[in-house]
Amino acid sequence: MGVTYNRSEFGLFDNGRFLTGTNTNFTFSPIYNEGYNSNYSLLMQINNQGVLGGQFLKVDTSQYYRMFVRAKTISRSSPNNYLGYGHLGFATFDQFYNFIDLRNCGGLVNTTLTRALNPGDTYAYVAATGWSTSATFIFRHLMFNPPTHPYYSTPWGYSRIGYGDFNICYGTSITQISANEYRLTLQNTSNVDTVMPNIGYELPVGTPVYNGFAGGTYNYVWVPTVPEEWTLYDSGWFTGENRNSSVPFRHGTKYIKFMTLANHARTETVSAKYLFSDIILLQSPNQRELNITW
């Protein structure tokens, strides 16, 4: 594995095996004096503890990756006697370290503008239906891939034009103009009609647009109930980018951080306690068989 070259750690996450006896890069929880591969692990002991690791890990989404986490419950909750439980995976970030929300990702109603859209316009005209008509604005962002934009021009890939750099929504009432043309009323995040802002780039006929639709916050590779013996979670190999809340990476990903939501949605008087002993990410140019021996 190329990831082990010139490294004291196995895998790309620094200190993911806690061999140093410290919580460096995982300061959201304390170290515990028990581990699977060493004398140490990371102790999770709080209800609804949603946290990210401290390391921005650079990734190349054309490569193959495989993620592992080893965990064990050491104390059940009270009064309901629950095992440890949570979400495990990673958060994705673009080249400028901006968090990538599902609303930034193409994949829903991938279509194009049928008329040029200019600053001050009150309507956008598009070539396909299927847009969300939810009353909640977070499901009605109008996303653009301006053809001349240096970072967001890939059709139906990643963009912050519509959510992030600008917040552009459309109304719940969609008007069909002709067999292949639909009119969207532009709105702000208060569901009030507005006009198109000046985004600094032209939006001609044929500009790729899509529905920015909110969903799972992070990439949840696993949602396990953790047994009372050491258990290894294995993502299998994954590569590439798309719109998802699991694997592979989201559109536009250049960096990731480890993510966990510990004892998610639990309200126990005494929370369950569990350990992480191995937080490991491997990289390879190809999928390959791998015997887990650590």
Produce a short descriptive summary.
This protein is mainly β. 0% of the residues lie in helices and 35% in strands.
How is this fold's topology laid out?
Elements (H helix, E strand, L loop, with lengths): L30 E2 L8 E4 L4 E4 L4 E2 L5 E12 L8 E10 L17 E2 L10 E4 L14 E4 L16 E2 L3 E2 L1 E10 L2 E7 L20 E5 L6 E4 L2 E2 L4 E4 L6 E2 L6 E2 L4 E8 L10 E12 L10
Parallel strand pairs: 10-11, 18-19
Antiparallel strand pairs: 1-2, 2-21, 3-20, 4-20, 5-17, 5-21, 6-15, 6-16, 6-20, 7-14, 8-13, 9-14, 12-13
Which CATH architecture of the largest domain is right? Answer: Sandwich
Q: Give the full name of the CATH homologous superfamily of the largest domain.
A: Galactose-binding domain-like
Q: Could you name the CATH class of the largest domain? A: Mainly Beta
Structural class based on helices, strands and sheet pairing: mainly beta
**Rg over alpha carbons:** 22 Å
Major pleated sheet: 6 strands, antiparallel
